């Protein structure tokens, strides 16, 4: 498994953990907006990284 695949997996794991933390906070009646904001940021970073990898591999 290449380093790029590992980074993508780690990024997806981070997004998943943040998502479940936000859902748990919502279930407990706490403010989950911060968790969801961080999820969107992390998810956007993972998507951007995936696009950059695809562009890099297409040129190489």
Automatic annotation (TrEMBL):
It comes from the Bacteria. InterPro entries: Hypoxia_induced_domain (IPR007667). The chain crosses the membrane at residues 6-26, 38-58. Keywords: Membrane, Transmembrane, Transmembrane helix. This is HIG1 domain-containing protein. Residues 1-60 form the HIG1 domain. Pfam families: HIG_1_N.
